[in-house]
Amino acid sequence: MCACVQETNMAEPAARPEGTSGGIVIKDEWPGYALDLFSYPAHYSGDLDCVFIPHGVIMDRTERLARNIMDDLGDHDIVVLCVLKGGYQFCVDLVDRIKALSRNSDRTIPMRVHFIRLKSYLNDQSTEDLHILGAEDLSFLAGKNVLIVEAIVGTGKTMETLLKYVEAFRPKLIKVAGLLVKRVPHNAACLPDYVGFEIPDRFVVGYALDYNEYFRDLSHICVISKRGKMKYKM
């Protein structure tokens, strides 16, 4: 299960140590790639600082995570719990790659997919007010192997809340796949079992990650600019 560790409170909470997530580590000083090296929608001109993780790199890493999941859960039925809206693209690509491995292997993973939605952000700030939609009755998870698929984990508090909620329905097993894990000051560290990338504390958009519902149509993961934040601020 996702590794949740409760730490003692300190006056100045420390950021998660680099390299502890198991994902590909992107250093704090990483400047990203120049925008003119890639194609992206013209309507976002001036709204982005850089391409942080190119789409092709995301796809390659997702395929590796699919193989890890196949190694751990192959031949077991699982229920994939996709966390909307930001996690939908990662979930689609991850499930597609698991299916491809199942077609070309002696091992297989029969899957059902269910969708829930979490909302805890206003502009670029996480709020204490967490809404879980589509999860009113998850009783069908009882006795099942569950794979939660989430796009990004920051402080881990949102994931910790979701895990407690899912655990109440008494599944047999819970695993978590997270595309991104941020190194941020935190009190409750909740690391996914499968991590794509460990990134600095920067606000990223694209690949279904949004800023007030914008930027989901970007293929790459990018860093939003100050102009972009002001332009789409609510």
Provide keyphrases for this structure.
7-stranded mixed β-sheet; alpha/beta
Structural features, described:
The chain has 234 residues and is α/β, with parallel strands linked by helices. The chain is 22% helix and 32% strand. It has helices at residues 55-73, 88-103, 157-167, 226-231; strands at residues 3-6, 24-25, 48-53, 78-84, 111-122, 125-133, 145-153, 173-182, 188-191, 194-199, 204-205, 221-224. Strand 7 (145-153), helix 3 and strand 8 (173-182) form a beta-alpha-beta unit. Helix 1 (55-73) crosses helix 2. The longest helix has 19 residues, at 55-73. It is globular and about 50 Å long. The N and C termini lie far apart (36 Å). Residues 5-14 have low confidence and may be disordered.
**Which range does the strand content fall in?**
25-35%
Tally of individual helices:
4
How much helical structure, as a percent, in the residues?
10-25%
Global shape: globular
Q: Got a strand count?
A: 12
Give the overall pLDDT as a whole number: 86
Q: What letter string, H or E per element, gives the SSE order?
A: EEEHEHEEEHEEEEEH
Which spans have pLDDT < 50 for at least 5 consecutive residues? 5-14
Q: Report on the biggest sheet.
A: 7 strands, mixed
Q: How far is the N terminus from the C terminus?
A: 36 Å
What's the arrangement of secondary structure elements?
Elements: E1 3-6, E2 24-25, E3 48-53, H1 55-73, E4 78-84, H2 88-103, E5 111-122, E6 125-133, E7 145-153, H3 157-167, E8 173-182, E9 188-191, E10 194-199, E11 204-205, E12 221-224, H4 226-231
Parallel strand pairs: 2-10, 4-5, 4-7, 7-8, 8-10
Antiparallel strand pairs: 1-9, 3-12, 5-6, 11-12
